[in-house]
Amino acid sequence: MNGCPIDDHALQQLVAELEATPPRPHHSGLLETAGRALPGQPFRFALSRGGWYRPGGLIRASGERVADHLETWAEAELADCDGDMDAFIERHGDAGLLATRHSGRTHYFVAPYGPAPADFLQLEIEELHEVLDRRLFSGDDPPADLQELIDPLQPSTLEAHPVAPPHYRFRRLTDMRYVVVRLPAPVGQIHPLSRFLAEWAGSQVRSKTHFCDHWIVALREHQDRYRNPVLSASPVSLHARKLKPFHWDLEARGVEAASQLLAFDRAAGYPGAWYFHLVAGGLAPRDIATVLAGDLDAGFNYLREQDAKLLAEWMRAPYSA
Fold it and tell me: What are 164-208's pLDDT values in tens digits?
């Protein structure tokens, strides 16, 4: 992909080696493989995001594999039946075919190489586990067309027993510095992630820790109506789970408000965390900006100077990264 720090040949070799590596606790084998391919760039695990599924293949009740990709197989078989769904059902109705799905998690690994917030590589790896999903179709309620065969409204579901060992699949390797310069923004404006990173660079946290110690960047590329590629990017906190118990008391003022901000920052592990989670983490309610600005106007000075500047700019032009 664009922004990959190695050439196509080296990337293809890396992908092959990563996907041949069996998943292990703490991803030790994968990190070792990545380290050999990118010497001097030691990756470390950052975050896992899961709970998603992808269509799988097709097997018989005996476990014999019929196809790796259900949709491709179904399209070919239906075409061989001249598009006649009744003929398709007659051909396969007694075969006891079972559809599978890939249960997936995406693992993020980071390797900082410079002091700027965007100076890091981000490696994204999917861990897929193929499990039983459903009977291909029921004789009592056969599909009417290809779409209903592939994605039925009322599937005959099965217990999700594994049908193959889990495996890794390469997703992308990105130099985040390159991504930031590609981010689209209207003329005279700055992309929210670019502003987020600039604010991080201007805050006191930069001297204490690297951006990728606390955040990864979720990337997505799609086509606009003119079929031009458009890149979207947003920060995702590594600490969202442990910060969930935090609750902000909007009635707090002065010393009490300062205490709550300090507690949040300590839990997150860096100063000013409350502000960055106000912008992107979703864990600090936006109403606190008005409360804190009111305290500043009233003469309270518990905010650090840099935090007060960030807050003032937010009040002038709020945004979401």
Answer: 999 999 999 999 999 999 888 878 889 999 999 999 999 988 888
For residue 260, how many other CB atoms are within 10 A of its CB? 18
- Indicate the residue type of 169: R
SS3 111: strand
**Residue 245 has what pLDDT?**
64
In angstroms, rounded to a whole number, what is the distance separating the alpha carbons of residues 114 and 120? 7
Question: What six digits make up the tokens of 92?
Answer: 């396969």
pLDDT (0 to 100) of residue 188: 82
Beta strands 98-112 and 65-67: pairing type?
unpaired
Close Cβ partners of 230 (under 8 Å, ≥ 6 residues apart): 184, 221, 222, 223, 224
Question: How many Å apart are CA 167 and CA 144, to the nearest integer?
Answer: 35
Q: Is residue 93 within 8 Å of residue 139, measured between CB atoms?
A: yes
Token look-up 């000013």 returns: 272
Let me know: does 252 contact 300? Beta carbons within 8 Å: no
**What is the 8-class DSSP label of residue 95?**
S
- Cα dist. 95→17, 27, 66, 92 in Å? 37, 39, 11, 5
Average pLDDT, the chain: 91
Rounded CA separation 119/139 (Å): 57
Contacts of 319 (CB under 8 A, 6+ apart): 192, 195, 279
Q: What is the pLDDT of residues 32-69, one digit of tens each?
A: 999 888 888 789 999 999 889 999 999 999 999 999 99
